[in-house]
Design brief:
Layout (H helix, E strand, L loop, with lengths): L1 H28 L13 H10 L6 H13 L13 H36 L4 H15 L2 H15 L14 H27 L2 H8 L4 H13 L1 H15 L3 H6 L5 H10 L3 H29 L7
Length: about 300
C-alpha cells in the first residue's frame, strides 16, 4: 500500500504541474490584461506595474518565477489589491470549508439513510416518495434552489436574515449546497444496497439467523458503500471549496467568490494561486478516496 501511495503522490504532483501549465498559458492567451479593465493608467504607471509583476519577461520565464516563489511558500501578490494572496485565500477557505463541510456531512448522512430505506422498502410508498424528491433534487441546480430559498424565507416570509459577515446565517446556504449531493448519494446508496442485498453472503447470514438490522447495516451497507465513496471523495473537495454561484447569491466571502473575482479582474497571480490550491484539494481527495476503499473492503488490492 505504501508503494501505491508513493506512486499516487508522484502522479498527483505531475497532474498539478500540468494544471498550472495549462492555466498559466491559456490565461495569458486571452486578449487584454490585469491593468486594462479599469480606467487606463498612464504609460509610465503601466510600465512600472508591468515590470513590478514580471509581465515584461517571456511567458516561460514568468511561469518559472511564479513556481519558484510558490515552492518557497510565496503565493504571490494580487495585481489588483497589492495584498499578499496567501492570508486572504486561507481565511476565505476557512469560510468555505465550514459551509461545505457541514453541507457534505448532512448530505452524506441523510443520503445513506434515505437510500437504505428506499432499498429496504423497494416499490413501496416510502421508496416512491424518496425517489420523487431525490429526482427533483438532482434536477434542480443549486443556484436555482438558493435563489428560491432566498426569495421565500428572506424576502417574502422574512423568517431568516440575509447572510452577512456580521450576522452569519448558514442555514439556507447549507441547504442549497447539500440538496444535490444528498439526492445523488441517496440514489447511489439505494442501487448499491439492492445489489449487496442480493448477494450470496447476505442470504447465508439470514439463513444463520443473523438479525435483519445487522444484515443490513453491517454486511449490506458496508459492502454497498464503495460507489458512494467514489462519488463523495471528489465531491467533498468541490463542495468544501464552495459553490461559486451560491456564495455570490448569499454574498458569502468564501473561496468560490474569491476565485470568480480573480477571473473577472484578470488577476493572473490570484487565478494561479486559487487554481493550484483547488487542484491540490482535488488530488488529495481522490487519494484519500482510494485509501478509504481499502478500509471499507479489505479484499481490495492496489496491485
Amino acid at each position: 500500500m505504501a508503494k501505491y501511495i508513493i506512486k499516487r503522490v508522484i502522479l498527483a504532483i505531475v497532474s498539478i504541474i500540468i494544471v498550472t501549465l495549462i492555466t498559466f498559458f491559456v490565461m495569458n492567451l486571452i486578449p487584454g490584461g490585469p491593468f486594462t479593465a479599469e480606467k487606463a493608467p498612464s504609460q509610465a504607471v503601466l510600465d512600472a506595474l508591468t515590470k513590478r509583476y514580471n509581465l515584461d519577461k517571456p511567458l516561460w520565464q514568468q511561469y518559472l518565477i511564479y513556481m519558484n516563489n510558490l515552492l518557497h511558500g510565496d503565493w504571490g501578490i494580487s495585481m489588483k489589491t497589492g495584498r499578499e494572496i496567501g492570508p486572504d485565500m486561507f481565511s476565505r477557505f476557512a469560510v468555505s470549508a465550514k459551509l461545505g463541510g457541514a453541507s457534505m456531512l448532512i448530505a452524506l448522512i441523510t443520503g445513506i439513510v434515505l437510500g437504505s430505506i428506499a432499498a429496504l422498502k423497494r416499490n413501496k410508498w416510502p421508496d416512491r416518495v424518496i425517489v420523487f424528491f431525490t429526482t427533483l433534487g438532482t434536477a434542480m441546480p443549486s443556484f436555482i434552489l438558493a435563489t428560491l430559498l432566498l426569495l421565500v424565507f428572506c424576502v417574502l416570509l422574512a423568517w431568516l436574515p440575509v447572510y452577512s459577515n456580521s450576522n452569519p446565517n448558514l442555514i439556507l446556504p447549507i441547504i442549497s449546497l447539500s440538496v444535490y449531493p444528498m439526492a445523488y448519494v441517496t440514489r447511489l446508496t439505494k442501487t448499491s444496497m439492492l445489489d449487496a442485498l442480493s448477494q450470496d453472503y447476505i442470504r447465508t447470514a439470514r439463513a444463520k439467523g443473523v438479525s435483519n438490522g445487522k444484515v443490513i447495516f453491517v454486511h449490506g451497507l458496508k459492502n454497498g458503500l464503495i460507489p458512494v465513496i467514489t462519488y463523495v471523495g471528489p465531491q467533498i473537495a468541490y463542495i468544501i471549496t464552495g459553490s461559486m454561484v451560491v456564495e455570490n447569491i448569499f454574498n458569502i466571502g468564501g473561496l468560490g467568490s474569491y476565485f470568480v473575482k480573480a477571473i473577472t479582474d484578470r488577476d493572473y497571480s490570484l487565478i494561479m494561486s486559487t487554481t493550484i490550491f483547488l487542484a491540490v484539494l482535488m488530488v488529495v481527495a481522490n487519494l484519500l478516496t482510494d485509501i478509504a476503499y481499502k478500509l471499507v473492503d479489505p479484499r481490495i488490492t492496489f496491485d
